[in-house]
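Q: I'm a student working through a structural biology exercise. My instructor gave each of us a protein and asked us to get a predicted structure, then write a short paragraph describing it. Mine is LysR family transcriptional regulator. I'm not confident about reading structure output yet, so if you can add a plain explanation after the tokens, that would really help. Here is the sequence I was given:
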Amino acid sequence: MSNIHKKRSLPPLAALPAFEAAARHQSFSRAAEELHLTHGAISRAVAQIEERMGVDLFVRRNRRVWLTAAGERLLKATGSALDGLDQAVEDIHRHAGTSPILTVSCEPSLAMRWLMPRLGAFRQANPDLNIDLRLAGGPVDLLSDGCDLAIRRADYGISEDYITTHLWAEYAGPVCDPDCWENILDRDLSNARWLHSRTRPDAWDDWKRASHLNVSPASEQYFDHFFFALQAAVNRLGTAIGPLPLVYDDLATGRLIAPHGMEPTSFDYVLITLDPPKRDPRITVFFDWLTGEAGDMGDGRLPDQ
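A: Happy to help. First, here is the predicted structure for LysR family transcriptional regulator. I'll explain a few features afterward.
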């Protein structure tokens, strides 16, 4: 007999994730925390399924719950179904290489000071591929965030679930406005005003260790974000530690100088993807363009002025 017109006697599908979480934890409260719902919402979802099916899924006693035999069977089936859906969504995401949009997550300072000024040239060279740029830093969940890839400074533990591809090594050094440097007594950093960032508070100490210089500032100023500290250096407020990609254009135009050159920070910028970049033609194009734009920056070479 054909199953084309078979009527499905399924429970309310929207309620199944709540049931699955409650059954897995055997706790409505923990399920509510996981799904960012109220205890009452979990309870109502479970009651809705029980009413539709005509069976109890939990034994409720003294504010605790235990699965019944029916609940155990439904948990097994629901968990398998949700896992299958997760896998299907991930597979679709991984193989959407024909999409005209590439969604890129990038650290804000790198995006604003290096990547965004170059995206116009990328668009001209690749008019059929649009970059949807998301500004974010630190750990990333590509699937949950709806991103195809992320660009990060690898200064934290990146999950082994991802493929990390080296982009360039980071170099950094003191940077300031040329006139500001001329006005520093004896052009000595110990007579300079040092600009710090609360998001990278050890930048100066790291540079001193790398350059083997033991100096202290005449005065200091702190900013909430690295981007602001670098902008303050452009605006002649003092001397900041500038990672090469973030100050590359300012060095090229002469808005900033790096009087002590650059030292390696021991951190790399990496591309984070679900699969090797070569599997997705869009990512391949973007990766090749990124590394081409970086040029010799990964060797610490300063731009010609």
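A: Here are two points you could use in your paragraph. The radius of gyration is 27 Å. The chain has three domains: 13-94, 101-169+269-298, 171-266. It's a good idea to check both against the output above yourself.
Q: Great, thank you!
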